[in-house]
Structure formats: structure tokens, C-alpha cells
Amino acid sequence: MQAILEISDLKVQVEEAGKAILQGVNLTVRPGELHAIMGPNGAGKSTLGYTLAGRDGYEVLAGDITLDGSSLLDMDADARARAGVFLAFQYPVELPGVNVANFLRTAMNAHRTARGEPELDVLAFLKLCRAEMAKLAMPEDFLSRSVNTGFSGGEKKRFEILQMALLQPTLAILDETDSGLDIDALRIVAAGVNALRTPERGWVVITHYQRLLDYLQPTHVHILANPDGMGGRIVRSGGPELAAQLEAEGYEKLGVA
Amino acid sequence: MPAEADTLQTLDELGHTYKYGFVTDVATDMAPVGLTADTIRFLSAKKDEPQWLLDWRLKAFAVWQGMTPPTWQKPNIPPIDYQALSYYAAPKGMGNGPTSLDEIDPEIRRTYEKLGIPLKEQEILAGVTGGAPADSGRRVAVDAVFDSVSVATTFRAELAKAGVIFCPISEAIREHPELVQRYLGRVVPVADNYYAAMNSAVFSDGSFVYVPKGVRCPMELSTYFRINARNTGQFERTLILADEGSHVSYLEGCTAPQRDENQLHAAVVELVAMAGATIKYSTVQNWYPGDADGKGGIYNFVTKRGLCRGAKSKISWTQVETGSAITWKYPSCILEGDDSVGEFYSVALTRHKQAADTGTKMIHRGKRTRSIIIAKGISADAGDNTYRGLVDISPAATGSRNYTQCDSLLIGNRCGAHTIPYIKVHNASSTVEHEATTSKISDDQLFYCAQRGLPEQDAVAMIVNGFAKEVLQQLPMEFAVEAQKLLGISLEGSVG
User: Fold this and answer.
1) Which residues lie closer than 8 Å to B244 by C-beta, 6 or more apart?
2) How confident is chain A (257 residues) per 10-residue block, as mean pLDDT?
3) Residue of A14, A15, A50, A56 best to disrupt the B interface, most CBs of B under 10 A
4) What is the ipTM metric for this complex?
5) Minimum distance, in Å, between the CA of residue A109 and any CA atom of chain B
6) Disulfide: which of B187, B210, B301, B494 matches B488 by Cβ 3.0-4.6 Å?
7) Partners of residue B327 on adjacent β-strands
């Protein structure tokens, strides 16, 4: 079975930090798999997410990232998104005055145009959108608000999941989606993610805590660490039991802090 | 900031996209260059004007000669050689204003076709059908002013049925002298300022509107100003009178050819709203802005003022200013009638080396008068944007209110945004609020949009339109779509 995501010996320098943050990361995600990436602060978890999504300022020094067998490295962030990479942000960004419905429809149509499909008209869009919003317990008036502006923490994360549901990515990356959520919001968001777990889709879930993983049931767990100050690498990999062990013993005891 | 650098590069690549910079090849009658009392006699004679108007112009000329150009604005205005300009330019044979719609020079008709302005009544304004079926588009009456003269005015017969007068002001001077004589200079006195005095002396054409008592004007009215000839200025004069309980919505658009030298557009617009009347005046200003090095472009020095003369009258200004090398413009309201309302909604966009010094004056004189000011400035490249506004509440204007909001959006590190509010309140029962913000389009915002699949130019257009939304939604529906596109194009591609 061909991998959805293949990361090989990835070395990444972050412009603002002025140094290599990732020093040789390897990861293979196959269809249907959910890979949790855990690790202490500063290990490079968010750097990995941003690099996969193609953010400017995250320079790949060596290695490769492929999606469905093709390298992403020469693609800009917007092209990667249209190719099927979705990043749910830890801190979703406010776009004052930009209407949620307009934003969603424009994004969906950018994807559809890239696939050679006709654009969605307003009515078809609203029908699709309302169905997904209902699953996430989002009220109708959400559509007329400004993107992320004045949203509560829970609303921001639900909006990320809504976008994921509408854009139907090949590879979904969640960057600390559990941060800033209370128990009820976490449950809704996790249920939203689980509803999107199809046999075809691959997942990379970046998190600090096992709490989210209790809901999501990862197939694989990896610990990213910066053990010698030389930059982040995956130092341990295993199944769900690794997350439980980490929760019980902490990074230090596992020798990765 | 890499994403920001990209944005600026995208801006640069699209910097030559001024779509209206062409020149129409048409034989033109021009006054000899120079400005003397004889020049004024010449152009007054060209227009067959009555003696009272010639006298009024000559008096204004004398006043102007005793004045000096203003220096208080933020942009430096280079000295203008008024003796090197021609004060009258008209396509040959059009000197006396429009004949019939069928007799317009085909070159001029083609010019307006290229600009998307219909001069046939069966056409509707181009670019405004938006997605709606063409036959459902609302009709818009157009007065087309080409250099110094009006070349066509559409839907006049239909408007006349409702009692609405919509014609070039040069014609109104002949046909409705009592109205023109009573109100010309009533709202903007001749000596108001340097450019208004000059306009009073040499004004060319513009529109005249009269809406009778209780009439709701049956369609949008618009004037389209085009500067074509070289070495000429355009001195628009517009007068709109809304009688008791009437309602009118008026829009003006402006473009000019791309030339290396600066050209002057010095306009005066006067509005009078009687008791219970509403005037909504919208501007989409897209004069040639000059090139990336600041060469060429229009000097847009404009005095616009409305008088809310009667109780419960209302004047609402909406402007989208994307063009001109220098904009100097303060559409204002004198709120004389009790319970009258003044509104000012503005988006000003400056890029390259454009400079805008724009805002409003809300002069509260009647009791319980209310005003709202929403000003949005967008600056990119080395563009410089200044909001300058006055809220003046007199002792008699008890129980009055003003709310002002000034927001600035910066793109890049070389542009500027300035907010200069003047607030004078002379009684204790009135309330004034002022809010101001400054923000930048951040890398985070651009990355967020890119991650959802939006190309950068679409993302910038979306963010800018979001920023300007409160103002754009004040425009008549047909023009809101156009203005959104214009903001997108002025910064780069169009909005998705």
C-alpha cells in the first residue's frame, strides 16, 4: 500500500530561530493510519506541522516530503493545500470583516477549480456546509460572523474541524488541537475528527497530552525530542501504549527531555 | 518577513494594471493656455452663459488671485503653474453640451464602452450585473462628462416624468437659472478655500439634480468624469437639490489617461437637503494614480459639502478612493436642521507614491443632530494615507451625537498612516466618541489563507475587502461589486 505521507531524513532550519530545529526526521503515514507526535516543548512539533504545510521561513536543508509519492518541496503553501494537505492550527488566525461563509466557499472553490471541478454555487455550498455544521453543533449564525474574530477557544477549534470536513484533505495534520479546550469542547472536536477518519485518509496529530489520544485512538505514537540540542528527531516510536507510558512516567524518565 | 516581501512583489508585478490609461483620439476645441479674466470671458461665452454668472465667475477670480494655496495638508503639493494649463477642452461640435444620444461621436461612444459606461438606455452599467440575470439589473441614469463638457445624459425623459431634473449644470444654468442662482455657492462659498475659489472662476461641467417634494427618484443617478485632453484641468461643478421629503442616490466615477505629467481635477460639489429629504452621494474615484516612481497622476483637490437645511434631513457620503497621485478631499455635512443626520463612509487606498489627505467635517448646528464617520485607510509600498476630520458641535446643537471610527491597514514597511481628528464640543449635552486602530496584514493571516488553498493575491484582496466591508456595504448594490473588484485590482487580482 502506497504511503500517503513519506518524510525522509528531513532537516529544517527556521529563519526566525536561525538554527536547525529538525535534524533528520523520518515518518511514513499510510491510508487510515493516525500518527500521534508527542514531545517536550521546543522539540520541533509545530515546526514539523508548518514545514509539511509549506510555511515561508521554514527552510528544508535536506531530505524530502512526499504526498502520494510526489515531492511537496517545490510547492507553495496554497498549492500543497489544494493537493490535499490540511493543517488545523493551534492558534487559528482572525480575519476581521472576512465573512465565514464567503471564506469557506472561496476555499472550497479554490480546491474544486484545482481538481477541474465546477465551482459550487451559493445554495449547493450552504447545503453542504449546514450539514457539516450540524455535526459539530455549530449554530446557523456562525456563517455570518468574521473568520475567527471574537470566537471562543472552542469555536475556533470547531471551525478548524469544519474546514477540514469541507475540504476533505488526503493528509490531515492537527497541531495541538486540544489546547484551550474544555472537556465538552474536546469531546465535540474529537467526535468531529473521528467522523472524518476514513480508510483513505492519513493523520498526523501533534499533541502534548494523552487526553486527546484517549478519544482518537492513534495507530502509531512517536516521540519527537531534541536530546542533544542538535535539533529534533523521532527518538521513540510505538503503539498507543507509548502514549500511556509517557503520561505515566514523563519525558524525563523516558530520557528524552 | 518573507510573505510580506512576496505580497509587495505581487503588488509590483500588478503595478501596471491601470486599465483606463488609454487616450481617445478626438478633435478637441481648446482654450489657449493661461488664466486671465479674458480666459473666463472666453469660456463663459463658449457656454452662452448669462451675465450674472460671468460676473460671479469674475468676482471669484478676483478672490482667488488674492489667495494662496493651502499648506496644512500632510502631502507636499508641488507648485502648479496655472498659466500653463488650458481651462477649456471639448470634443469638436460638443461645445454646447449633448445633442441627442444618437449623435455622439463614435470615438467617444467607444471610449465609454471601454470604460463600461452605457450611453444607450437599453444597456445597463457594465460590470454591475454581478451574477444576476442581465435583464434584472436596475437601471442607472448616466451623465457623461468628457474633459470640460457633458457629452450625454441618459434616461432624462423618464426622470422628467417623475419631476426629477437631471442634466449637465451648463444646461441647468440656461433652463433653470432661478434654482442655480439661488443655490450656487450657497454651501461652498466662493472664498471657502483656494481650490474652491478657482473652481468658481473656471468651472466647466458637472451635473445638476433637482428632486421635487415627496419624490423618490426612480433610479440611481450617476456622473462619469473622464479627463482626456493633455495640459488641461477638469473643474467639475455639481449641484444636487433634494426638496422636502424627497430621496435621491447619486454616484460618480472618475478615470483619466496615463500621462507623465500631473493633471488637476479641482471640483466643487454642493448638496442641499430640505426637511425630511435624503441624499446619498457615492464616489468611486479611480483617477490615474501615477507610476511606481510617482511620475504623473491626477491631483484630486475637491471641495464637497452638503447642507442638511431642513429638520430630519439626511446626507450620506460614501467614497472609495483608489486613484490620484494626491487626494485632498473632505466631503462634509452642515447639520442645520434639527434632528438632521450626516454620514461619511470612506475607503482610501494609497500605494506606490500616492498620497491621500482625506476625511470629513461634521458641523452640528441643529438640535439632536447626529453624525457617523467610518474611515478606512489602506497603505502599501510608499503610499501615505492621512485621515483628517473635524467634528464641531455648536452651543445650540444640544443633545447631538457623533461616532467616529478610523482604521488603518498597512502593507509593508515603507507606507504611512496618520489620523488627525479635530473635535470641538460647545455644549454639555452632546456625546462624541472616537475610535482608531492600526493594523498590518500579517504573515500569519496570509499563511492561514494559503493553507486553505487561496493564492496570495486572493488572500490579500479578501483581507482588504474584509477590512473595508463596513464602507463597501454602504454603496448602492450595483457599485459595491465594482468597488470590491477595484480594491482587489488596485492591490492585485480580483476577489474570489
Assistant:
1) B213, B214, B274, B275, B276, B277, B310
2) 93 87 95 94 91 95 96 96 96 93 94 94 92 90 93 92 96 91 88 94 92 92 84 90 87 73
3) A56
4) 0.96
5) 9
6) B494
7) B300, B356
